[in-house]
Amino acid sequence: MKKLLVASTSTIYGSGYLEYLLPTLKSFFVDVKTILFIPYARPSGISYDEYTKIAKNAFSNINIDVVGIHQFENPKEAILKAEAIFTGGGNTFELVNQLYKKHILSTLKKVLENGTPYLGTSAGSNICGVNMMNTNDMPIVYPPSFTTLGCIPFNINAHYLDPIVGSTHKGETRETRIKEFHVFNGIDVLGLREGSWLEVIGDEIILKGDLTARLFQQNKKPIELESGVKV
Fold this sequence. Notes:
Protein name: (Alpha)-aspartyl dipeptidase
Order of helices and strands: EHEHEHEHHEHEHEEEEE
GO molecular function: serine-type peptidase activity
Keywords: Hydrolase, Protease, Serine protease
Number of domains: 1
CATH class: Alpha Beta
């Protein structure tokens, strides 16, 4: 049975890395001693080791150790043996590119479908959807496919931003870009605002956090979903 936390972001304003999620993570990863961290989306300018250290420091607050997948000679075996898995944010194109390059996307999907607890933030949440086509990231690399894990039956737009009232900016809003996606694709898209996350237990998906989320469906008006409702 799937057990996932799909979060818009790792860090909210005025808070440390994963700090706002720690109470939830403590209960979600109960009895987990070590989490396997996938740092492939790494933010620019830092190494896999440095990124893993950031995650390790955060989880030390709830007495959980973290080890990076890049430290293993066989990443597929590391996934299969993992107690729990965390994929951090960064660039979704590079994350998906590495998952395909190392031939571990299908392995990751398999263990998550079988119940290995999983946390995704930002790019790590984008890959939980049907495909990665609603990422906000620039295509700095070209992965073999945009198809991702499909652990949830829709796509995620992480860090979703509403139009700023009174703004003179004439570029596309997030809503406009998602409508452009729906010209050619029928997949639903959930705009997850900062500080919101999805709790996925089996086939039940519940919106968590203090904010609403915006659900976009092809040829329909967007719907605001209240925290606590099933998606």
